Amino acid sequence: MAMSEWIPLNLPTKGPIDLKRTMESGHSSFPIPVSDKLEKYYLVIKVPGTNKTIVCRIGQKKTKVQAELSDPYGSLSENDVKVMKKYLRTIFGLDMNLLQFYEEFKSDPLAKAFKDRQGLRLTRAHDLFESLICSIMTQNNSVWKFNAQIRKIKELAGEKFPTDHFMVYSFPNPKTLYRNKHLLKEARLGYREDYIITTTEEIANYQVRLEKFYDIPTDESKKMLIKLRGIGPKVADMFLLYGLGKIDAPPTDIWIQRGISKMFFRGKEKSLEECREKMVSRYGKWAGLAQLYLFDYMRS
Question: At what angle do helices 128-137 and 143-157 cross, to 10 degrees?
Fold first, then answer.
């Protein structure tokens, strides 16, 4: 039976918002969510500090972002709603002052990416484990393929929730995914399957606690992450930025390499590490956001 009670929320933003481009940029904390005909995106999220799992749908009407919450197992308290309103602002980067970013770099070569991308925002993980697995799946993979693979994992091992339009799925927790690791063959993950199984086992057995990385400096976090099987510098930065919200960790792939080489080195190809260093030195605290704009610009 589909959910019938939805609690509406208005979510003001600091500066412009383009929810569609934000959700579908391909560089995110979670796979591109399914959407209905009204372009409302559906996510399954746990209410922080509780054991409650809810379905959230979020859309944009003109310049305003509107969300709706539904508890498939019961009802939400006033405090649950209050907590979720604040949490959604974090997940979708609604408190980030984009106008300040645009103004600070209005004369920068990156500024040409601003015009058609006003309101593109950095998202942040609502599920750190899902975000880490997404990060692993991005290596040597296209945006659309890794998104399809993550969605398949959710269908195979996650909880399912019927809506009026389609079924939505949660991402399985580490213990559930490891217990059902035999199903991963159906997701056709290739060589990444072994990486995911190994990492999932370490997290399921509490050898790695992802939430601890919030309080560890970026450089130290990165050194710790790349000790895990299947996680190199770029994957580590993906999780640091899109999972943990460490905006000083710009992931550097071939798109960023091409863009930085073209903008600052007259097209002479520089190494991934040299391009990352340029991003950090040039954009400082905004490096992660600059990476998102450059990635979206170079791909399109």
Answer: 140
Torsions phi, psi for 74 (to 5 deg): 175, -130
Instruction: Give the integer Cα–Cα distance in Å for 203 and 121.
Output: 29
Is 152 a residue whose pLDDT tops 80? Answer: yes
Query: How much is the pLDDT for 23?
Result: 93
Around 251, how many Cα atoms within 13 Å sit in the side-chain half-sphere? Answer: 28
Placement of tokens 């997290």 in the chain:
203
Residue 263 has pLDDT above 90, yes or no: yes
Which CATH number do you get for residue 97? 3.30.310.20
> Maximum distance among all alpha carbons in the chain?
59
Q: Which domain holds residue 85?
A: 7-117
Tens digits of per-residue pLDDT, 96-127? 999 999 999 999 999 999 988 999 999 999 99
In a domain, 276, yes or no: yes
Residues 189 and 275 in one domain: no
Tell me, yes or no, whether 2 lies in a domain.
no
**Crossing angle, helix 287-299 and helix 254-264, to 10 degrees?**
100
- Is the Cα dihedral 180, 185, 186, 189 positive or negative? positive
**How high is the pLDDT of residue 25?**
85
In DSSP terms, 292 is beta-bridged to none
Residue 192 has pLDDT above 70, yes or no: yes
